[in-house]
Amino acid sequence: MSNNASFSDQPSAMRREDALDPEVVGAYVREQVPGLAGVPVIRQFRGGASNLTYQLDFGQKAFILRTAPMGTKAKSAHDMGREYAIMDQLKPFFPPVPRMIAHCDDAALLGRPFYIMEKMEGIILRANFPRGLEMAPEQVRQLCTNAIDTLIQLHQIDPVAAGVQQFGKGEGYIQRQIEGWSERYRRAKTWNVPGFERVMAWLQRNLPAQEHICFIHNDFRFDNLVLAPEQPSAIIGVLDWEMATMGDPLMDLGNALAYWVQADDDFLFKKFRLQPTHVPGMMTRREVVAYYCQKTGHNPDNFTFYEVYGLFRLAAIVQQIYYRYHHGQTTNPAFRHFWILGHYLHYRCWRLISNRNTDQRTK
User: Fold this and answer.
1) Which of 121, 200, 226, 333 is most exposed, with the fewest beta carbons within 10 Å of its own?
2) How many of the other CB atoms lie within 10 Å of CB of 97?
3) Is 125 inside a domain boundary?
4) In whole angstroms, what is the distance from residue 236 CA to residue 258 CA?
5) Do 173 and 298 belong to one domain?
6) What's the distance, Cα to Cα, between the start and end of the chain in Å?
């Protein structure tokens, strides 16, 4: 690993449509942090497709501001108050959560609610390792193990003791997820994508007889993890708690595996890879499941349902994005070929189902 370069995630200039007023933001933060002075330099992180993330640099100290895009409403998927409260409650029980500073629901200030939290200095992985960052296979394996251990640590938190049991309905979570994502997919379906009806029917017929309720992240990926700058195999932060809730831990793992593109996957899956899970030393999906289940006591033989669910949920998310492109609500060219990804995810779902049915017939 190179020692003469910084691999920390760096922001860039604010997009014009997302620009914030440094004077207004600075005045608010100074009210919340005693002894702070000056007007911040504000830059924007370009990762993520949902809420907006900014760095507020006061010279000696930097903070992070998170807010929804303009035009969204607080009581929606962009609920800043909920995300702030989750992290604030979790922090004493789950150290990788950033320290929260303040939440503001006065829309008159920035035009929408926002919150401020500490800036965690570290590395955030995107599709590939940062240029110049080299990790031996054994270091990569340790990173992978540490990531799964971090997820396990979250799943083992007592929700009542942490005060997060209020953020979700709990019991019946699996049924609600299958019904909810099925409805969302049907609403967003366009003429050029598969219907997924057989997949949805299979999920309904194969609902697990037992569910385990704990607090889950619901978007656990490498680009939501902060790695230690001097020891990139160590996890020092977990970000983006927008979708966190009371739910089933195996559903959380299934969601994570939907993004886990490994070295021996085919060309199309690699084309849509968002994280470096293909590099030497990374576990395969099967190894991830085996490791998680060995550490938690779950049965890895019954994981097909959760893996199919994760892929179907991803297909619904992708289709919701593509629906906007298809109907001219966004012109982002990155979404142009998402209909192909929908077909591919349908293929992967049905291949898993067919393999599961074949295994059951041969037993």
Assistant:
1) 333
2) 21
3) no
4) 23
5) yes
6) 48
